[in-house]
Amino acid sequence: GAVSLVAAVVVFAAVKWSDLAAWAQGGLVLGLTGLVLAGTLAARRRGLAATAEALAAVTVALGLADVHVVRTALDGTVAARPVWAAGLAVLAVAGVVLGRARGIVTFGLAGAALGFAPGVVAVATSGPAPIAAVLAAQAVAAVLLARPGAAEALPQDRGADRVVTAVLLVGAFLSGIVGASIAVGVSFADGYGEPAPREAALAVLVGLAAGLVAAGTARRRPGAVAAGALVAFLPAVMAVVGHGAGLRVPAVLVAQAAIAALVLRVASGTVGGPVRSAIAVGGVASWFLGGAWAVSVWAADVASLSRSVTTSTERAPAVALLVALAAVALVGA
Hints:
mainly alpha, 77% helix
C-alpha cells in the first residue's frame, strides 16, 4: 500500500494524468494491478487475512479498469460489447480460481458474481429470447458449479468455497426467475417491434426445467428440483392459452401428470418432505382433471352432444389419452 501511494505521488507530481499517452496510462494501470495482486497473494501466504482481503478488493476494481483499458486500445477494431463480455469472463474465472485456491473470500465473491454478467452483456441487444436463453443456461450452470448440498460441512478455512456456493445459488435463483419471466412475456408480447417467437420461449422454458431437475438431482439440491418441476408446468399451460377447445387441455394435463411422475422418479433420492408432497399433489390433481376432461370429450363425441366434437376422429385421441393416463399412473405408482 505504501509503495502504491509513493508511485501515485511520483506520477501525479511529475506529470498530469491527462498528459500521458494512452499506452502509458494503460501500462500504469496494468502494472499497478499486477503489483497489488502480487501483494494480495503475499499477504495471504503470510497469514495476513484482513490485508489480503482488502488488497483483493483493490485488485478486482483495478481488474475492471484493465478491461476498460483493453476496450479503449481496441476501439475502432473490436466492438465494445464483446470486449467487455470476454474481459468479465476472464475476471470471473480468475476470481473463482484464486478464491478457492488461496482461500481469499473477496476473490471468490467477485468471481462468482461477475460470472453472471458476460453472457447477458454479449446478447444484450439480440432480443428478449436470446437473453432468456442465456439466463436459463446460467441458472443451470450455477447449480452444477455449486458444491453438492449433501456434502460435509466445509472447514472454517474454506470460507471462499462457502461464499462462492452461496453466490452461485442466489444467482441461479435470480437468473431462473428473470429468464422464465422473460420467456413467458416473450410468448405473449411483441419483442422489439416484431411478433415474439413463442416456440423459442417454450424451448427456453423446457430447457430450463429439464436442466434444473437434472442439475438439482446431480448436485443434491431439492430446491433446484422443485423449481424445475414448477417451471416444467409453464410450457404446457402456455401452449393451451387461447386454445382450450377439444383435447388440447386434457393432453396438457396428462403431460403435467407425467412430468410430476418423472421428476419424482428421477429425483427420488433428492426431493423429500414438503417438496415431494407438493410435486405429487400437483401430479395427482393434473391426472384426475385430465382424465375427467378426456372422458367428457369422449362421451360427448359418442353421444354427439358437442358441435365442437362431432366426428369419430376425436374418439381415438381421447382413448389414447386415457391409455396415457393409465401409463402415467403406473409410473407414478
